[in-house]
Amino acid sequence: MEKKKLDTLMAAISTASPFLGSILRGARIVKADGGPWPAATDGRRTIYLYPKFFELAPAEQAAVLLHEVLHLAFRHHNRRRENSYLWNIATDSVINTMLKEEGFALPEGAITTDVVSEIIRRHPAEVKRMSAEEIYSLLLRHAPDVKLEACGLHVEEEGGGDGDKQDQSIPQDQDSKSSEDRDDDEHWHGVLNRAVVLARLAGRSKESIERAFDLMPPSQSWTSIFKQTLVEGLGRVVVQTWLRPSRRLPQLLPGSRKLTVPDVRFLVDTSASIDRTQLSKAITIVYSVTRKINSRIFLYFWDVDCYPIGIVKKTDIITKVKIKGGGGTLIAKALKQVAKDIRAGDIVIIITDGYIGDLNQDEVQRMFSIIQMKSSTAVILTSAADIRIRGWRTIKI
Ligand SMILES: [Zn+2]
After folding, report:
1. Distance 11 CA to ligand 1 centre (A)
2. Of 11, 13, 69, which Cα lies nearest the Cα of 43?
3. What is the distance between the alpha carbons of residues 261 and 278, in angstroms, rounded to a whole number?
4. Which of 84, 99, 120, 123 is nearest to 19 (CA)?
């Protein structure tokens, strides 16, 4: 009986939105006992329906199913950030807005980009184009204590974890996703692809659908891109100096190592929303790549000012980071300091949420360029806003 009702519901959803109906068919739907809410997922491909689900009206059932499947399709559980409550608000707003645009009724008080845009002080049209990561960063910046009714991602085995578990330990060197994660990424990527094609064929595609891929995690993890970037940059400096004989003193081969081991200059934006998990992943990679050549790591904190910390050990960085929150962010002073300190061939890494007030000032652009030309590798790791600076490699984290 329930199976038949479910089939009818799925058919109705596909008629209303070929796009969402097609995505929904990418999930395994399982009836389960108990459960404090109507539905939950395993964070991978399965949606569990609890008895409460079958007490809902069909329109509510559709909204619940689609809400859950979009969390799965966009891999929200795997991309979860340090503050999981704000992460839930950010992801719910992305999902619910998509459901609304596809004509599905949302429960009263549902979080959408209209609700969020007021809180993060951005135009609703702008928020509609944002990823969950961007919304999350702006929430941290403008309303870290906001209270809204978010769904909590409803992941089965976690039972409403509140994200308070502060993990200060440095994770293992994880420069690639687990094969399980990659399989799921691939599965949902394929599902989304078919859904977009179907919507186009049905003549029902629109901006929010065409943008669906932007809401997916990239197929290659940022950590492996970051590691590759560092290794390549290091290769340029180290290989050159080791292999090129000195023209004046050809007997001295290879060239003097002492003078040319590059140092790392690590600039951490402490003004708002640097995620400790992301930060420690970045640090772990920096250490794993530079350990063999004994690079020193110079740490700089910055918000509107610059606070040079000096040489640090791996674990020091995480324990020293204090996020101020709420304030503005200007990079001029930090760049000025690094431009003064940098030696040829150094690796410069900036980690930020990308919301930098003076980014477009001529003086700031000039310093970015000076630093980049002196460095062997210049990387910006950004957790939210996209930054494009000539010669710098930007990696979304
Ligand atoms: Zn949700």
Report:
1. 23
2. 69
3. 26
4. 99
> pLDDT of 227-272, one tens digit each?
989 988 887 776 555 444 555 554 444 544 444 688 999 999 988 7
48 vs 354: CA distance, rounded Å: 38
From the CB of residue 292, how many other CB atoms can be counted at a distance below 10 Å? 9
> Ligand 1 center to residue 42 CA distance, Å?
13
pTM of the predicted protein model: 0.72
Q: How far does CA 209 lie from the centroid of its chain? A: 21
Q: Distance, CA 125 to ligand 1 centroid (Å)?
A: 21
Q: How far is the CA of 386 from the centre of ligand 1 (A)?
A: 25
Please tell me whether residue 275 adopts helix, strand or coil conformation: coil
Is a pLDDT exceeding 70 seen at residue 168? no
Lookup: tokens for 352: 């930020």
> Does residue 124 have a cis bond before it (omega within 30 degrees)?
no
| Structural domains for the chain | 2-215 (no CATH), 222-396 (3.40.50)
H-only helix segments in 291-331: 314-320
Sequence-ordered list of residues with C-beta below 8 angstroms from that of 239, at least 6 positions apart, any chain: none
| Burial of 302 from C-beta contacts in 10 A (0-12 / 13-18 / 19+) | buried
pLDDT digits (tens, 9 = 90+) for 89-129: 999 999 999 999 999 988 888 899 888 999 988 999 989 98
Phi-psi region of 48 (alpha: psi -120 to 50; beta: other; left: phi over 0): beta
CA distance 297 to 350: 13
What CA–CA distances, in Å, run from 205 to 157, 196, 209? Answer: 36, 7, 6
Sheet with 28-31, edge to edge strand ranges: 28-31, 46-49, 39-41
CA of 88 to the centre of ligand 1 (A): 6
How far away, in angstroms, is 70 Cα from ligand 1 center? 9
Closest CA to 387 of 374, 368, 373: 368
